[in-house]
Automatic annotation (TrEMBL):
It is found in: Cell membrane; Secreted, Cell wall. Residues 31-61 have a biased composition (Low complexity). Coiled coil: none annotated. Keywords: Carbohydrate metabolism, Cell membrane, Cell wall, Cell wall biogenesis/degradation, Chitin degradation, Cobalt, Glycoprotein, GPI-anchor, Hydrolase, Lipoprotein, Membrane, Metal-binding, Polysaccharide degradation, Secreted, Signal. It comes from Cerrena zonata. It catalyses: [(1->4)-N-acetyl-beta-D-glucosaminyl](n) + n H2O = chitosan + n acetate. PROSITE patterns: NODB. Residues 1-19 form the signal peptide. This is chitin deacetylase.
Amino acid sequence: MRYALLSALVLPAVVVAHANRARDVHHPRQAPSSAASASVPASGSATSAATGSSVASGASSAVSGTVAPTTTLAQFSFSLPATNPTAIPISSLSAGTQTTSPTLGVTTTYAAGTTPTFLPNAPPLPDISKLVISSYPALDKPPPTDSPEVQAWIQEVAQSGVQIPNLTPSMAGGCAANPTLLNDPDRCWWTCGGCTDSNDVVSCPEKLHWGMSHDDGPAPYTPNLLQYLDQNQLRTTFFAVGSRCLSYPSLLQEEYMAQHQIAVHTWSHPQMTTLSNDEIIAELGWSKKIIKDVLGVTPTYWRPPFGDVDNRVRAIARAMNLATVIWTRLDAGHTFDTNDFNIPGGTASPSEVVFNWQNILNNATQIDTGFIVLEHDLFVQQVEVGTGYILPAALAFQPKLTIEPIITCLNKPLQDAYAETNDNTTNPPIVSGAQPVTLSSGAPGSAEATGGAQNGDNSGALPVAMLGNTNLLALTGSALLAVAAGARVLF
Ligand SMILES: *[C@@H]1O[C@H](CO)[C@@H](O)[C@H](O)[C@H]1NC(C)=O
Ligand SMILES: *[C@@H]1O[C@H](CO)[C@@H](O)[C@H](O)[C@H]1NC(C)=O
C-alpha cells in the first residue's frame, strides 16, 4: 500500500546561489535547495510527501561545498516503498564536503594470521602493520611502467597465450572525442556504443536477482555502509581502488572478513581505453598486488572505471586472470547507474539519484534477467543515499528482490572470487600457462611499516582531505577532476 504513488514530476529547482567570495566568483556555491524533494518515510503513506517538504524547508544553508555546480540542479520527486527512519533528509545532502553523519571508523580489527573460516583453503590474513607505503606507486596516479613489478607483469601478459588486439588507445574526452571508434565492432567499446563481449558480466542470470556492488572505496564512510549491510544481513561486491586499499587496509580486511566480495577497480581510476597496454597492466597489477598484500587473496573479477572497456582492455584483463564486470544497460539512454557518483561534485542532486533508483527498480521488473547497478561508497553522500533510501527501498520492494554479491548472483561460490581459493570447477581460470611471479615489495618486517592511525589504517597518507573542509577533489584524481571541470560524467 505504500507503493501506490509513482510520482515522476520533475520540479523546478529552487537553488540559492552565493558567489564564492574567496575565489571564483563565476562559480556559484550551492546552498541546500528547499525544493520539494519528497521522501516517503517507511511508516508513512504515499501521500505523506509533504513531510519531506517541511523537513526540506528547515534545512540550513551552512553546508560548505568545495565544488561549485555551474548550473542549478533539478530536484526530483519520488515515492519509495520504504526509507530508513533515521535517514538524513534528502534535502540536507548536497555537494561538497559534508559532515551529516560521523564515520563509525573501523569496528573490528583482525589479528595477522587469522584464517578466514568462510572460504575453503583461504590463506591467513597478512600483517597489515607491516605494509610499506613507499613500496607502492604514488596514490591516485597512473603507476610508472618501468618498475620491476610492472615489467614482470608485462612479461606474464605476453606469456599468457591471450592475444591482445592491436588497437590504438582512445583519446581522452569520451565518445565525442572519438567519433571514428564508436561503432568499430573489432573494438567493441562498451562506453560508447554499449558493445559487450560474451564474457562480460552485465547482469545476473535470474530475474529479480540484484548483484549488488559499491565502487571506489574503501573510504571513511564505508564502515557506515558495512554496519547497515550487517544489520540487514546483506552482502555486496566492493570494487576497491588500489590506492584506497593502501590508505585503508583495515577497512578492506573488514569488508573481506564480513564475506563481501572484493574485486579490482584499478589503482588510480583512469579511463582505461585511453591508456597504453603497459599502463593498463600497471593499473591492474598494482591493484591485484595491494589486495593480495592486505587480504592474502587475489580477486578474479574487476570493473573498469566509468565502464570504459574495449577489446584491448578486456584482453589484457583476461590475461591477468580478471573477468570484466560492468553494469546493466537497456539501451543508449538507460544504464542501471544511480548517478550517485555525481552528487559530491555537484552535478547530480540526491533526489535525482533516488529518482533514478526508483526507475531502475521498476525497469528491473520488466527485464528477463537480474541486474547489476552502479553505486559508490567513496563519499558520505553516496553512503547516506544508499543506507537511507536505496537499500531500504530495495528490501521493501515488491516483487521481492534477491540481493547478493555479484559472484553469488552468478551462481558461483564466494571462493571463486579469488585466485587462491578458486578450485577451478565452477570458475575455470581464464589464463592457463602463466607462471606466477613473486614480488617482494610490502614484505613483512620492514622498518618503514606504518600502522599509524588509531584504527590501523594509513589514513594520514591521503583522504584526510575528504574529512576536512579542503579539497574534495584531491582524492580521486582524474575521476573527480572531470567533475571539477563542471562535466557531468555521463559514462
Ligand atoms: C525505466 O527507466 C526509465 C528512465 O531510465 C523511465 O523513463 C521508465 O519509466 C522506467 N520504466 C519503468 C517501467 O518504470
Ligand atoms: C586453478 O588454476 C590455477 C591456474 O591454472 C592453478 O594455479 C591452481 O593451482 C588451480 N587450482 C586448483 C585447486 O586446481
